[in-house]
Amino acid sequence: MRKATRYHSDRFRLNNQLMWAILLVLFLSPFAFGSTKPSLWLLWSLLISLCGAVLFGRMALSNARFRIAPRNLPVLFCLFVLLGAFMLFQALPLGVSSAAASIADLGVLITLDTISLTPHDTILALVRWATYGLLFFLVLQITSNPQRARAFINLLYWAIVVHAVVGLLFLLQFGDTILGIPKWKYFGSALGGFINRNSFATFLSFGSVLGVNLMIERMTERLSGKGDTSILGIYLGKGGLVVIGLGWLILVITLIATNSRMGLFAGCCGMIASVVLALAKKSANTNRTGIWLFLLVIPVFVGLGMLGYGTLFLERLGRVGDASDVRMQLYQQVLQMIEARPLLGFGGDSFEYAYPLFHQAPVSVDLVWDKAHSTYLSLWAEYGLFFGSLPMLIVAIIVLQLGAAYVKAPGQDMLIRSGLCVILVGALHSLVDFSLEIEAVTFAFVAIVATAWARQFELRNAGTREGS
């Protein structure tokens, strides 16, 4: 018994230490232009792999078991490995000649001995995919303990608030720059450390969803008798409603200041969905009156933020029709790409190089179209219809599992609700943009979803597992 206790104690300390290392990566990665460069992909991959090596090494030395092992998520693990294996297959020099032709000039043929048009980029895509999988696994270990899970989400929430403050400061006080570096586009929009306002908006939307759910949980704590249940403690104490609410207000203002139309829409959908899910959950300890107020508070504060910081946003909103026309023309040509290689795709991370083979009027030739501006279309163009659908299938399975766990949970569950609504934000914005193709945004997405998944696993196995 003492040996088992020591193993659990070693695992507990290890997961506590690991939490800070992972949080540091999540906090720093957005400052590096959202981590859009290969050197940064390799850096974060190295650091997360180092965390994984320490975890596996120390667990082996202690002869301890993982709280959540790959065998506990067999379907998700198999689908994840399947796509990774296909990426490797795309990049291998198989000796079987494949050709890509341009519809702009039918005489142009590019002959390769790999499926991928850009095999080296596909290897980098595989590195990022493996990094996301390892990050998901590491966060599962960290957040398998419910107290640590809540601490992790709280710290991640405040990390995103810090990024929002930085974004506002460099927009309003430091010459409308990116961390002091002169902008070359998106003038008048808050970017923080990102180089794309839509990516920053998705990142902030994740934080705004966490803020709403943290406030709902704080209101519920008074009725359930958890924590400091005094009026002063609930509203003004450490982690009180007012403190969390101020952070959330900063996030909403910065989200508006990004001037991202779909970013704000997706963020509002995520926040409202959080309130609706909380109201739909029948629980004796639910402060339903307070939760109903959020349905009024969210649009009111978004509206007030528009008055102060939404001038450029409203101007862009008036041009949404023109922007939609351009996107539809782009999407039609991307669909032609998918039709050209519906099974094998053009290779991971190859869109930037494959699309020029199909690029023609009326899509502007004055711009470099290095993204499909729809993550769904991008996946199908790069990996084919079957393998490109695997990430969506993985997320769909997670949504079903989280939804079932939320229904069965004995009361309100902030972590599961946050995971579901963050997935909603990412799914909506991915329809018309590429935020989840930006590594720093995907890191936050993976961390929040993994935390929610760990909670549903805990609920499913309640009564059969020991605490750690």
From TrEMBL:
Transmembrane segments: 12-33, 39-61, 73-92, 123-143, 155-174, 194-214, 235-256, 262-280, 292-314, 383-407, 414-432, 438-455
Record keyword Electron transport present: no
Database matches in Pfam families: Wzy_C
This protein's UniProt keywords: Membrane, Transmembrane, Transmembrane helix
Localisation per UniProt entry: Membrane
Membrane topology: Multi-pass membrane protein
Statement: the UniProt record of this protein carries the keyword Manganese: no
Domain spans labelled O-antigen ligase-related: 249-386
This protein's GO CC annotations: membrane
Chief localization: membrane
Designated name of the protein: O-antigen ligase-related domain-containing protein
Organism, as annotated: Rhizobium giardinii
Species lineage: Bacteria, Pseudomonadati, Pseudomonadota, Alphaproteobacteria, Hyphomicrobiales
